[in-house]
Write the structure tokens for this entry.
Amino acid sequence: MAKVADKYLKVDPWAIIEEGFDPERNRTSESIFSLGNEYMGVRGYAEEGYGGDSLLGSYFNGLNEQLEIGNHYKGIIRSLRYMVNAVDWLYTRITVDGEQLDLAKSTISDYSRRLDFRSGTYQREFVWHLENGKSLKVTFTRMVSMTLSHLGLQQVAFQPLNFSGSVEVCTGLDFGIIHEERGENMWNSLHSAEEGTVTGIMASTIHTGNKLFSGFALQSPQPLQTTRIERDKFIGQSFSLKLSQAETTYYTKFVVNCADSNSTRTADELWNEGMELAAAAGKLDETAVLAEQADYWSRIWETSDINIEGDPENQQGIRFCIFQLYQTYHGDHPGFNIGAKGLTGEAYRGLAFWDTESYCLPFYMFNNPKAARSLLEFRYKTLAEAMERAKDVDCEGACYPIATIDGTESCDLWQHSNLQLHVGTAVSYGIWHYVKNTGDQAFLYSKGAEMLIQISRFYATRGQWGQRTGEYGYFGVMGPDEFQLMVNNNCYINLMAQKSFEYTLDTLRVMKEQAPAEYAEVVARTALREEELGDWSSKAQHMRIPLDEISGVYEEHDGFFDMPHLDIHSIPVTEFPLYSNWSYDRLYRYDMIKQPDVLMFMFLYSGQFSKEAKIANYEYYEPRCIHESSLSPSIHSILASEIDKHEEAYNFFEFATRLDLDNYNRNTREGLHTTSIAAAWMNIVYGFGGMRSDGERLSFQPTLPERWSSYSFQVLYEEVLLRIVVDQTTVKLSAISGGSTEVIVYGQQIKVDDSGTVLPLGEGMLAG
Amino acid sequence: MAKVADKYLKVDPWAIIEEGFDPERNRTSESIFSLGNEYMGVRGYAEEGYGGDSLLGSYFNGLNEQLEIGNHYKGIIRSLRYMVNAVDWLYTRITVDGEQLDLAKSTISDYSRRLDFRSGTYQREFVWHLENGKSLKVTFTRMVSMTLSHLGLQQVAFQPLNFSGSVEVCTGLDFGIIHEERGENMWNSLHSAEEGTVTGIMASTIHTGNKLFSGFALQSPQPLQTTRIERDKFIGQSFSLKLSQAETTYYTKFVVNCADSNSTRTADELWNEGMELAAAAGKLDETAVLAEQADYWSRIWETSDINIEGDPENQQGIRFCIFQLYQTYHGDHPGFNIGAKGLTGEAYRGLAFWDTESYCLPFYMFNNPKAARSLLEFRYKTLAEAMERAKDVDCEGACYPIATIDGTESCDLWQHSNLQLHVGTAVSYGIWHYVKNTGDQAFLYSKGAEMLIQISRFYATRGQWGQRTGEYGYFGVMGPDEFQLMVNNNCYINLMAQKSFEYTLDTLRVMKEQAPAEYAEVVARTALREEELGDWSSKAQHMRIPLDEISGVYEEHDGFFDMPHLDIHSIPVTEFPLYSNWSYDRLYRYDMIKQPDVLMFMFLYSGQFSKEAKIANYEYYEPRCIHESSLSPSIHSILASEIDKHEEAYNFFEFATRLDLDNYNRNTREGLHTTSIAAAWMNIVYGFGGMRSDGERLSFQPTLPERWSSYSFQVLYEEVLLRIVVDQTTVKLSAISGGSTEVIVYGQQIKVDDSGTVLPLGEGMLAG
């Protein structure tokens, strides 16, 4: 594994705290101190201008630019869309006595920053020692509102320690930022103006014409005499603040950003809408806004907190994860998805992967079902693009993209976009999983069934019959394990496609009986033919699932067991990451795997596999797994818990909650591992909590890591908010709200209501 | 196959003749009417300037530019080199009474052009009808000298049909040409000047700094009053010629081009060398130059002609092939290779492939052994680059590039450059084949052995041991059949690597005994260790050769027999070429093959496989072969002849000699299929002639296609020039020069000398 923590930040149960400024770690901290509210996200960069190394990143969910790709082959994409770096709405320049503040040049002391999980704010402060001997304490507070999604707030406060005088400030909106991966600015300015209290600017992306309005109004206890500053792609106001020794003076910038990535509005409409919102924002009371934000977060912690006693680092880590998950997504906006880095960086181009349904969906299903449904709605909204893509690759139905921001395939490595077929099965699994646990039959019948039909059509046309085996399967594919690049009959894809066919057929059968009108409608809308059902049934029935009957080990794909063996522990630490240090082709010719593949489906359909089967497959595949995906350790941890390898389970968990805080992969600088953050939640709830959500009822098999004295977590199940507390002797379940429900604990079905139920901790479940 | 002839050109045994000008076919004709002399090549474009669609292509062997590739993975190339379009040394502009000649705009009649195999010239003539009613016959003759490789000659003649007057001519050297694939000019001008009789210019490529000098001197029966014309990247002379009705007036441009692709000379040195050569060229006698050219070609036809009686189209076709092969390569310049399109176009970027050793080498071995050796010398000269490439891909020894102009890997599709391992085995096969048939032991000991050692090292480090089979082989490869993209244990690669190991070990064993000093030297130079020999021996011995023992069919790779079946005849004609009409990934998941793979090694090591084995494998693989490589039909034709499928053999041969003349693949416009041209020669000699060169002695098994009354061909074997004449009753062998030798005919060893031997045509060998 060769993963080592880089411990640096202070440990605190409710905040991330950095003391002292380290330019080397600046980008990493920019990622960690990111703020977001699903609608927009902003990295924790120094808004006053920083001459050192920084990724000044400001992103809007769905807002994209397009890159043309020089490709001549049919079926390989010709252009891709990516999340584009957008307006720097925090732009600030601060000058005192002609000297401009810049952490790269100025002398500073007492630097600290804090991301607070309860207030939902990011604060940064330090003392600036001017060349002329003056010392000024500067405090930046920022917030993006969880309740008013267009609203961002920035407060800049000054406390002169040894002088009285003034400070010159220029605050503005800057569309002149560089999209780092392209090394270019991707914006055309459309309009900018000062109207009443609002200073605004609007621009559009060069190739896609996505529009973005940004406007701000200022408040300050001191009356402000402002001068408008305009230049290319920029508008701002400059003013002077009087400073009195020891007293704190501040101003607050209320910013409204309105994005239009679908061109649903004209430029005029967007401008007027933005100006109106900004004018209203300028009248808001700052204290009330901050209080509303804190209130929002207190509700979140009430329903979604995980409490760990006896492990302050993981306590902080898991709260950071939950905080970032809510910041990234909470289902307020239809048509949004979760990029691999959320809204915190440009790596992976802001694109969403199968991670959404496979790793993120459970967190939302059991905390915020509206958000879970919204994620599935994204796939429904982009069904047309998936059907277009299926045609591109000579298939029928819907081929969901391996990487996307708006439903179009945006992965420019054909070996991934054309061979990795497991997004469609992730979507159908997601529908199944969501409906099973929320009972949202309405979604299934109105939208899910249509997606299932088109997904099944894709798998029925992409697959083929093996000439020797006579079985059905997928040739020329790459499964979740990206170290087996182009294989036949990947066991994961085959099994997941089989399940997808079966679920589609089950759904249609039940629907025909129970909701004949909706059934007739979906049949008509999809022009479904009776013989297709027979075809899918036959293909599911004859699906090839490569299995060594004697050992009980599933063969990851045809021929995997003959792949040359490599003792992964013999690889020198210096050769990691292998993608950078090994010849590309060399990665693909061993029995070494990058991430769980067989083990992944054993987790997803846990109830269908015996403990013996899990043991056999875990013991075969785990030693061959290099975990070069950040999603890998958590799945291994969950399975290890289940098969009583508690020490190993805890070891794999070590990377989960603090992957970014301790920068295990040394690439947090590029952005947070947002989808891995969701896996950290699963690691505790499905791993130590032993929750399983693929059976008829929700079940638990709690264990307690020996390092912990107790822990608790909450899940919303059938509209009941369940709280599970595990300590060294007992498991306590109670219904916090919503009445009562029944769940399975250690194999026994029990009723849980507000009076709570206490069970002894299962035997052998006190791990270690 | 869906290949249909597009018959257009006149049939003539010694020339290519086009009558009438068809703008639609202009690019195709430009390719067909290409001239070359190994050092340089020039397409048959209209040098007077043409406003229509044209590829104005002028190429120099080895002269290259570099393209950077945005790749971040180790082992995948970061830049590539390609043959760059160079100076238009034929540049001419012709004006009469203010009207400029341009075939795209002018009114013309009586257009014809002719490429003459005996004079080695290209002539184009037509009557130009001016707007003012004047008619002028214009004749362009050009030649690139086969004996003075720097020399090109252009004669432009004018015959006014109904007037007397004058013509204004501007003739020059233009470096302002566009490299079509890049859409840019790739030259920096270095110097231009008029010195004495010579007008010269020198430029260098932008990224690689390859230098090229071009200079010309003019001759004319009429004294020329010239005016120098200079502009960016251009120098020329303009002058006026007096015209008298019915009389022919002309001028001749003697051009010298000197390329320096290895920067072995300074700019000054190259300039001085070029100017000196050009001054000398300007003093040459045109008639003598043309006579020398004709003389050269008469010697070629004496030794290398193939004569076919009763089939004028194939007679013309095979002579065109032989003519183009000599034009492309004849071994006068060390360090040159044969690009897939020769020097006739920019497709395949002017790069050389394994075609050189696998398809072209036999033609040269049996016609011009010096050229054959020179081709192998190219691989020796580029051994350092191949060793560098092996390191790039985490291997040892030498990894010869799949596509190259200068020894560096220049294929930008990683799936080809990193997975197609068969160039190294082609080189070692080439060494073996060449040495076996020429007896050039000196080459083997001085250079061949060193290459063999480094090649074996590569195959010993790239291969792996199968965990289940316990056998050695290659995982993650693409064999010659490019429709199986990434497979394990491709039978061709495994078998060829086994042969390569064995030949290396045999060579070293014999060398150690017979040439101990050279043996010691090569061991020292390569730091060869004794244990490597044991390792190679073991790997050869345990090489996996997938074979179905019952049917005798070799499995193209592990799992091929399970690949889904496709009846290739069910593919609609409109879907060809599949690369353009099928989703890229779809090409790779059937039992459909693109070109011979198993059948290829059965041809290369013909003597090792029984006729029964060939029948079994041919009958299995041929119906699955789509022949989407132009190299495919000839190999099938040769094998079909051997297994008595004479009709089929002739059908496959149909595409061979006239692939470009009848534009079967509809892409001759991009350049000639130069390496396929070599396969056409093999098709006759190895196919109908039944020659085999992989045994202890050269052997023949002649058949006669029913459409032919007789045919003859010649091969140089052990310094004896053998002539084989096959007619409907007999096979006549005679030694034209070089004394006598022994060969095998119909299984019997016979002595052939200048008195000749006549045998009856073998039973069943009168095909059809």
Chain A is about 30% helix and 25% strand.
